Amino acid sequence: MSKLLNPVVLGKLGSTYGIRGWLRVFSSTEQSESIFDYQPWYIQRAGEWRVIELESWKRHNQDLIIKLKGVDDREVANSLTNCEIAVEAGQLPPLEEGDYYWKDLMGCQVVTTSGYELGKVTDMMETGSNDVLVVRANLKDAFGAKERLIPFLDGQVIKKIDLTAQLIEVDWDPGF
Question: Which residues form the RimM N-terminal domain (predicted)?
Fold first, then answer.
């Protein structure tokens, strides 16, 4: 078992497919099949990241399905359902100036252009038309918000991202 020092989640194991241990895979990579370019994969079990070996994969209708080494029946495969698939961050290609991975935005403080602190980024969602920042509001938020969903529209809503300062400036109404 090798150690995973800087995990980046690229997808998730879905429901079982058939009786021979195949599983559906949900990929978070830009091109869904690109998830197979990054090996080895790790999943978290009992609080530890463990390597899993891909034996085979194929496209079935709209789904990607995989066969993992050592997983030969539906029961074992079912125990892996909903496990996140991670890789070592160093496996990802270098970014161009001004680009960033979603993982880089996690924990950033989100502030409006007028200086109101909306909270911290806890997640990102892909909606089809645009990505969405999930921002956990500060405990004493004046608007009583617990969480905000802010469209990730660069230039329109997202005005500035400073990863060094862990700060994202947005043009967004705090009451919304």
Answer: 10-88
pLDDT (tens digit per residue) in 43-89: 988 888 999 999 999 998 888 999 999 999 999 999 999 999 999 98
Under 8 Å CB-to-CB from 13, ≥6 apart: which residues?
A: 23, 24, 25, 26, 43, 80, 81, 82, 83, 84, 85
Report if pTM > 0.90: no
